[in-house]
Amino acid sequence: MKRTFIVHAALAACIAQSLVFAVPVHAQTEAASTTTANPLPEADKKFVQAASMSSSTEIDAAKLAMSRSSDGDVKKFAGHMAADHTKLTVQLKMAAPRGVSVPKDNSDTALLDSLRPLKGAEFDTAYIQKVGLQGHKEAVSAFQDEIANGQDAKLKSAAQKALPTIEKHYQMAQDLAKKKNVTAP
């Protein structure tokens, strides 16, 4: 069963990777490319950027957790994040208006780079703090902001449908932090 879970998590990560290209965060890419016939309002651009970055970072960080963590609970959380954020990425792409390109693999490279040299308990603490707690807190805020201020009906609807999942992830991260005695950053 554990092997099946790891295989499914790895498969989900591979699927997610096939959906995205590398775009470094520091390149200050535009949130979404648009055509002149279909410009995307600024609030919606910000949401597309934040949501795609969040999911991409979650997927890439989950891959790191699978190899750098020695804790079964952390690996289970990471596998769950990879699978759910792969689905959320697909849903975001489907909700994007015609002519709008969702950024692909625009992970937070600085965050990932800060995790790469870590292993074991040190990795677990940083992963829970930066990805689990802080990352999901920021994602909840971005989804709530889209619901309140977004102008594109499909993107707002996608945010409304996804918000409970993001909030559940944040609660899962809080529960994991409490179990592992990790405090918020």
UniProtKB/TrEMBL annotation:
Query: Which positions make up the signal peptide?
Result: 1-27
Q: Which residues form the DUF4142 domain?
A: 43-176
Protein name, entry field: Outer membrane protein
Looking at the record's lineage, which domain of life comes first?
Bacteria
Organism, as annotated: Paraburkholderia terricola
Keywords, comma-separated and alphabetical: Signal
Pfam family membership, one: DUF4142
